[in-house]
């Protein structure tokens, strides 16, 4: 038995050395990797800041020189995310870079970084991007990238030192294991026989170990623990495992408070709500962790009334979450131990959906009620005798017809918008001539334009590019935009339809420019919302449903394009429609 025990102890020592080496190596590896990565990042940022002093065209011209100086791949990107120049790849072949993580972070914070694997070199690359600003606006980005191989080289050197240290420690460790085995082998074997007897279900009585040192004390402790705590430990581990599994799998956030009303533990859902790890939340009060007075007041009410509390609370300021918080005491704890459990059920999405439904019903009800009231009122007047006056009856019937048409347009627009949002609208994309498309629409708005003495102009370059779009839906988009332009342009005004090609992209831009009343800048972001009107009274007077631009916005998105609106109050509005270029 002795040689076998010796080998086990020797292996244990050897395993401890390896474990320590692995732990030390792990932490040192991460520290070395972080330090080396930080040095590369700072170097790239410094070169990027120096490069940012150059104008964009000069950056593109000097791209090769910049790569030699910085020893990094250099990419110059404009404000829209299009690559102007790259030191290793032909820029026109490169895709849009606006969605790159480092560029997105630079757009928000001024600088950004990202680490990802190069498909070409099969190594990790560090990308650092810097926003080029002119005042408050961004004129572009400069991005630099460098391989992280030198980081791995530093880690390899650290591992070499670690292996040498293990080699020097192995010989004294083996000698120590031999001496230690000789001393403790006999009492250990006695303990082994005793515990084996217990495993067989026998009752061997008291463990007697002829040793006055710590091994003797261990033998006494074994006697006590076996008789008093074996069952309790088994039950405690079982209950703890059940509780931890239940908390980890819960969608609801759970917080446990100790008797001092400080956070003892929480689950992953709470970490997601607070966007902080548990280590930063533990041992804090609710007020310190959540910074919410309503939550603290709910806890105070629970402590005062000593009965469960359920309350709706808003968490956060920038993008608040609405949660239902349930506060109750944890029961069946040992005497003198008090703990409180808070369960957070996130109902933010439900509240938003409820508000959307409420707003939609209110808007639809209002839009339908207005023409219906007019129709019912004039019909009642006709039934009360106005039919005898033919001229008056004709005017009333004309008003009824106008409001009925308005109701019909509202229902048609609602059905169209619903079909688009539910993805029930199938698009038959085909190359379309912009000139032919526009000239097929003009006759439909020409009558309204002539009635107001508005001049309709078409200003397209010769042999203008084709767009890739659904013919009927493209016509509907242009019809809605042109109708709006004519509707909100005073008599004697001008509406111009023009076209151009995006300089660094695959879009053809159709612009509708009017000399109308214009739109205040603060209202422009809301254009495209259902039933939103800048001037509600004027829009209804002109027969609008409030859904035209919303339909345009959704149809443009379905085409893979977008709508952009620029306006100056009193001078006019420019609506730009970005269609994909055909071919």
Automatic annotation (TrEMBL):
The keyword Transmembrane applies. The keyword Transmembrane applies. Pfam families: HAMP, HATPase_c, HisKA, PAS_4. Residues 182-234 form the HAMP domain. It is a multi-pass membrane protein. It is found in: Cell membrane; Membrane raft. SUPFAM superfamilies: ATPase domain of HSP90 chaperone/DNA topoisomerase II/histidine kinase, HAMP domain-like, Homodimeric domain of signal transducing histidine kinase, PYP-like sensor domain (PAS domain). Keywords: ATP-binding, Cell membrane, Kinase, Membrane, Nucleotide-binding, Phosphoprotein, Transferase, Transmembrane, Transmembrane helix, Two-component regulatory system. It catalyses: ATP + protein L-histidine = ADP + protein N-phospho-L-histidine. Residues 363-583 form the Histidine kinase domain. GO terms for molecular function: ATP binding; phosphoprotein phosphatase activity; phosphorelay sensor kinase activity. Gene3D superfamilies: 1.10.287.130, 6.10.340.10, Histidine kinase-like ATPase, C-terminal domain, PAS domain. Its main location: membrane. The chain crosses the membrane at residues 6-29, 162-182. PANTHER family: PHOSPHATE REGULON SENSOR PROTEIN PHOR. This is histidine kinase. It comes from Syntrophus aciditrophicus (strain SB).
